[in-house]
Amino acid sequence: MKSMTGYGYGEQTADFGSLSVELRGYNSRFLELNINLPSSLMVFEQPIREYLADHCERGKVEVTVRLRELVSESEVVVDTPMALSYYKALQELSAALGLGETPRLATIVSMEGVLQVEKKRDPERYRPFLNQALEEAMRQFEAQRAREGEATAEDILRHVGTIETSLATVQTHAPQLEEHIKKNLRQRFQEVMGDLVDENRILTETAVLLMKYTISEEISRLMTHLKEFRRELKENPAPGKKLDFLCQEMNREVNTIGSKSPLIEVSQAVVAMKDALENIREQLRNVE
């Protein structure tokens, strides 16, 4: 089991400077990838997206790549036709105003578009450094998610144990529930009919009520769900969605048991199971 929250950082240095990758993970129902890259490395967005999708099932993952260059490989290009156009326009303006001034080079150079800086970058040059930094960040990210996931699993299992203990209490009192139904029904018949009670009628009505109010089926299904929950928690590396579904099913069975039983011991056990299930579902919001 892994947590959806985590952090990882990787950095590589080379003759050009340094390249770093930072990963941050947050809770989310689905996989959301937010990748921030320098414009010169945008070509690597899709490979990074595919790499993350291979390592993460759910959660929001933010990736920030920073490139720090010690030497900028740039070339200054002069747009001569534009410079000549500016020169001609300034000469005409000077003549029109009767100034008789010749346009200065500093003035023309300062005009927009005369000088252009072109950065010469080969993205492939950065690929091996980006890959290494990303892998290092992912190692840290996965390690933290695994540590948090292990702690979460222990807490979830503690709550599962509470449910199992409470269910055992319910099982113990299940025969008392059936006896309570039989006793109540016979008492009501006697109050209405006195000594004219039809024993066969009592047995028939008792059978109908037992079919309606017995909790043996709910107990059986709840036990099955608990076994499946433990198995999923142990074997599935990304069990979040399945465990949340099982919690919903268990909650349904627990509610049914609570609605059927008038026994205070069963009601107390139901409250304990519902509280444990709520805590489990809260923890599952951070599980992949």
SS summary, helix count: 8
Classify the secondary structure makeup into a structural class: alpha+beta
Question: Roughly how many Å is the radius of gyration?
Answer: 37 Å
Number of strands: 6
Distance between termini? 7 Å
Calculate the mean pLDDT score and round it: 86
Question: In what order do the strands lie side by side in the largest sheet?
Answer: 1-2-4-3
Describe the main β-sheet briefly. Answer: 4 strands, mixed
How would you briefly describe this protein structure?
The protein has 288 residues and is of the alpha+beta class. 61% of the residues lie in helices and 16% in strands.
Blueprint (SSEs and pairs):
Blueprint: E1 6-14, E2 17-26, E3 31-36, H1 45-55, E4 59-69, E5 74-78, H2 80-96, H3 105-109, E6 115-119, H4 127-193, H5 199-213, H6 216-235, H7 240-260, H8 264-284
Parallel strand pairs: 3-4
Antiparallel strand pairs: 1-2, 2-4, 5-6
